[in-house]
Design brief:
TIM Barrel, eight-stranded parallel β-barrel, 37% helix, disordered C terminus
């Protein structure tokens, strides 16, 4: 590989570019490596840099000289302080290491010089490097000229966010990573501070754009801004001054590139990707990019293969970090939403905002802090948050776990059979607080597929009663709920495993919807419902709800999500009506609310009703998170007991932003802005996730689907793995002998007991 990259040009003398230069030169001294940096060697921006132990381990393995130099200058600490409304909460055991950015660059300058790298400061990179060199590494930062010059090849997407921030320093060392919240007359501001030397700390002040404008920062010069920030956060600074280094207020921009290389030019660090400073990953990612690129150049037989391998290796890692960074960024953007949380819950919510730090992780780091949060929340001693009870109207769930509705496509003529008894019965025995049926259809024409269940005949109601009777008799701590819905324009299709969303080869029935817009090019064009048909449909829902009450269900959920009939009324992408049921949000809500009210009229007063919504359509012009709040608020005004917050599946050309618990932020927002209890759903897979989301106050219940397909006894096993044996979960008597986690193995080797001298 080295013969194909003898001449290497690096654009940008930041940590990523310099470290790449040092690594490549160390791996092959014959390489001619030149770094072009437009600034002077001591002309750096920013102050402290945080590196993780994982990153340092990679540096130690690849270049012990750099590692040893870094070790001598690192400032280390363990604690995070959160200061809010006059109280400070400290969480320990986090393990940070930081040093000054200027010192980091000095170390890398020295290393490059010693290895024979040609460093050209105060020099713009020539435009023809790709033709004069074998490899060009563009490490030219967030404002990368290389990326913009070749935008058609790299296909960048740059998103500017809603906060302004300024990067400053103080001439003393914080004794912890400090987050401090200031509630000013203009709005909420926050300080992020951490030490990077024995006598210096980085201080970042951040606030929403509208707060920044209202506070007058737009009209202040650099020094005036610095002085104003020092005054606002005088308590955190102990009255000390702040200093700047050509510091300016800016808005964070998230950079994503579809491709990272173009010919013999490759992006590295902020030129390729950015991650919000609140998770401290910018320099870390750049250094790890350099490590990966150097390794791929050594391992692959050609430059083309090396650059492809580099992108394949780094893209998933970076995407995961960017998801965490975006979650953290958005948490701080919406900080005002959480200010009235109980103080310890607020601190826990802040610490777990990126979803990378979790309840169990914090418990291992600082059991005292986590225990205090649990006590404030109301957890009895030894009780994980997921096993605390929750009340919905007259129904008390013994834990926070819900088996999410999952279509099984295994019925005949809408009739649930032995499969449904075994499927739902097994999951009820598995310990969840609430088990939900699949979408149960209110008419034969309202089915998605011929295999969908219904509640449009008395025989179906009797079959459902067989299932609810089993659950109540054999799993007495578990409630069972029914989800009622109508397929709308997504009906008359094949079973999922035969061709999801594809029309039946024969025997199709007419589909109906708010507007005559087919779901996909191969689907039927639905018939637009008339006023008379809307009345008939409302009566079908009411009759199904009455049968559900007679069948013994404990809870009823109205399905207004995923592009089915009622969802089709809510979304402006699928509702183009010009009558009283289309147009404004209030009009689009009219029919779903009429159905809800009709069901509530026949559903027993003491039994709760929930509504599942798609909180975003993941498509331009569709339902947004803001609109979802108003939808939830409307159902709350009509008496809904909880909102089950899903997303998407409304239009075929959606572009969801998948990721761990990716739908929870929508539930979180609805919960805090409306005060309505919520059920979070979507890529929640571990009991640690459930504990974290519940304790942080982002949701009241967690619905899990696929984990319950993998393990019907998911909740029982979660209790066993956490050593919990309280009232929040109950092992069925026939299973009680298995209530302790099995041993996974043993060894007969003697344990070491003595240390012998030599």
């Amino acid at each position: 590989m080295t013969s194909l990259s003898l001449r290497v040009a690096i654009i940008g003398g930041g940590p990523g570019g310099l470290y790449a230069a040092a690594l490549l030169k160390r791996l092959d001294p014959a390489r001619e490596i030149t770094v072009w940096e437009r600034n002077a060697p001591d002309d750096t921006f920013g102050f402290g840099v945080v590196l993780s132990d994982e990153t340092l381990g990679g540096i130690e393995h690849a270049d012990p000289v750099v590692y040893e130099a870094l070790q001598q200058d690192f400032t280390r600490w363990d604690d995070i302080d959160i200061v809010h409304r006059g109280t400070r909460h400290t969480s320990g055991g986090h393990g940070f290491a930081a040093l000054g950015r200027k010192r980091l660059l000095e170390i890398l300058h020295t290393r490059c010089h010693d290895l024979g790298v040609d460093l050209r400061f105060r020099t713009e990179a020539p435009p023809d490097l790709a033709t004069t060199h074998d490899l060009v590494i563009a490490a030219d930062g967030v404002n990368s000229t290389t990326r913009e010059t070749h935008a058609q090849a790299f296909r960048p997407q740059v998103t500017t966010h809603h906060c302004r921030y300024i990067w400053l320093a103080a001439d003393f060392a914080f004794d912890a990573f400090r987050f401090e919240i200031a509630e000013t007359e203009h709005g909420v501001m926050q300080l992020h501070g951490y030490p990077y030397a024995a006598d210096a700390s980085t201080v970042i002040v951040e606030m929403r754009e509208e707060v920044w404008q209202a506070a007058g920062f737009a009209d202040l010069g650099e020094q005036e801004s610095v002085e104003r920030c020092a005054k606002i956060f005088a308590d955190a600074l102990g009255g000390r001054a702040l200093r700047s280094n050509k510091s300016a207020w800016t808005s964070f921009r998230t950079v994503v590139n579809e491709h990272w290389s173009h010919g013999n030019t490759v992006l590295l660090g902020d030129a390729a990707h950015t991650a919000h400073f609140s998770i401290g990953s910018g320099t870390k990612l750049a250094v790890e990019d350099a490590l990966a690129l150097a390794a791929c150049l050594e391992e692959q037989p050609s430059l083309e293969q090396a650059l492809a391998a580099y992108e394949t290796e780094r893209k998933p890692v970076v995407a995961s970090t960017q998801r965490a960074a975006r979650a953290s960024l958005e948490w701080f953007e919406n900080l005002g939403r959480y200010l009235d949380q109980p103080p310890r819950q607020f601190a826990f919510n802040l610490l777990t905002r990126s979803r990378r730090v979790t309840h169990d992780n914090l418990r291992l780091r600082d059991a005292r802090f986590t225990g205090a949060v649990e006590r404030e929340f109301g957890c009895p001693p030894g009780t994980p948050p997921m096993f605390t009870p929750f009340r919905l109207r007259g129904l008390t769930l013994r834990n926070r776990v819900v088996v999410s509705p999952m279509d099984m496509y295994s019925a005949t003529d809408g009739l649930p059979g032995d499969f449904h008894l075994v499927h739902l019965g097994a999951r009820a025995l598995g310990g969840a607080g609430l088990v939900m049926t699949e979408m149960v259809c209110v008419s034969a024409e309202g089915r998605i597929t011929p295999g969908c269940t219904g509640l449009y005949t008395g025989k179906q109601a009797e079959a459902w009663k067989r299932i609810t009777d089993f659950v109540h008799a054999r799993a007495p701590g578990t409630a069972i709920g029914v989800q009622l819905g109508h397929s709308g324009r997504k009906g008359s299709t094949k079973l999922m495993w035969e061709g999801i969303d594809e029309p039946l080869p024969d025997g199709n029935w007419r589909v109906v919807a708010a507007s005559p817009i087919p779901y996909g090019p191969g689907n039927q064009t639905p018939h637009e419902l008339t006023r008379a048909q809307l009345t008939d449909l409302r009566e079908q829902f009411t009759a199904a709800a009455w049968r559900a009450s007679r069948a013994g269900f404990d809870l009823l959920e109205l399905h207004c999500a995923h592009g089915y009939l009622l969802s089709g009324f809510l979304s402006p992408l699928t509702n183009r009506r010009t009558d009283a049921y289309g147009g404004t949000l209030a009009k689009r809500l009219r029919f779903p609310l009429e159905v809800f009210d009709a069901i509530r009229g026949v559903w027993p007063e003491e039994r709760p009703m929930t509504v599942r919504i798609s909180a975003t359509d993941w498509a331009p012009g569709g339902t947004s998170a803001e609109v979802a709040v108003e939808i939830a608020r409307a159902f709350a005004a009509h008496g809904v007991d909880a909102i089950d917050v899903s997303t998407g599946q409304v239009v075929a050309d959606e572009r969801p932003a998948y990721g761990r618990s990716y739908q929870t932020p929508f539930a979180d927002r609805i919960r805090h802005e409306t005060g309505v209890p919520v059920i979070a759903v979507g890529a929640i897979s571990s009991w640690d996730d459930v504990n974290s989301l519940i304790l942080a106050g982002r949701t009241d219940l967690c619905a899990l689907a696929r984990p319950h397909l993998y393990d019907p006894h998911w909740t029982l096993h979660a209790a066993a793995e956490q050593g919990y044996e309280g009232p929040g979960v109950g092992w069925p008597d026939p299973y009680r002998a298995g209530s302790r986690r099995p041993q996974t193995g043993r060894t007969d080797a003697p344990k070491p007991r003595l240390t012998l001298g030599t």
